[in-house]
Amino acid sequence: MDISVIGASGDVGTETVTQLLAGRVLTPSERLQLVGRVEGKSSSKLFGLQSDLSDAYAEVTPELEVVLTPEKIRGDIVILAAGATVTALNQTRNELARLNLPVFRRYAQAIAAHGHGRELVLVVSNPVELAVEVFSQYLGRHRVIGVGGYSDSLRFRREIAHDLGVRRQLVHAFVVGEHADNMVPLWSSVHIFGRNGAQAVADVARLRGERVTARFPAEVDEHRTAVMEYLRQGKVREAFERVDQLPADLRVVLRPYITMLSGAKTSIATANVIVDLVRTLVEGREVVVCGQIRLDGELSDLHVPVGVPVVIDARGWTQVVPLELWADEAQLLARAAEGLRERIRYWLGEAANHEVNPRAPTA
Asked: What is the pTM of this model?
């Protein structure tokens, strides 16, 4: 199976190709395309990266190919990690959408016109929901999956596992909705292997505290404001310490935000998620993950790209996993989906003369 990494010269792209080779995900008979642009630094950096990777992994490296025009992308799995990312406190998803929409369209059009028609696209770039919408229009929605929901769900499991003193592998939980401040961590989906029903209910009640799900967006706004003030003052450690005191669901939203703006970014964790998923697909296995897909009424009559649990294999996603949401979770997801639908209209330029008040999260 061949893999193409669009944006291989960027932080996430470089880390992804490195982990793919270090993890021996591909065999020497397969191909890994390092995709960049003729314009800019990637045209030279990718040839250097190709040489460096060949030196490091000579015995196990697949065929490494530098691709500088989107028409030459030939991967069975295409990883989209190109475009602008958050680099400043005041940078919004509206700005990312404006900068990245032409990138999304360029690659989606090229793959649709010149690909082999079976590509599975894994979207990392943000806004991930906008990329899913654009690629779904050109390739069909079942062949496009955003990994934001997968990352968020793994983080939620990790935070819960930390609080309970267990390994993350023993925690099951999903985060749905938008990959940003409008994500919806589902406490109703939390299951701790080895604990019976009563114990699990008690665990969730203790971890949530006396809080109401409907107030989750307001809580995110409140604590993000405090975190931003620490970051403006250069007090990164204090920002992390404040977040450490918050419940697990709030930490899921805010911790990556601080990491991204601390200068360290989240490239290692993001690449690890991608490589873990790619390995599963390359091995021909089917898996349930929470990812951004273009829904067409499969869950709660939603018609928008949004994070939900899905069954996927190397062909794409095949079905949406049913959820038994608490009533307030369902309401929060519906609100998030409606706001996202309006933002996508706005981003695509379809909201001319239509007043939109897009929330502009920056994580």
From this structure: 0.94
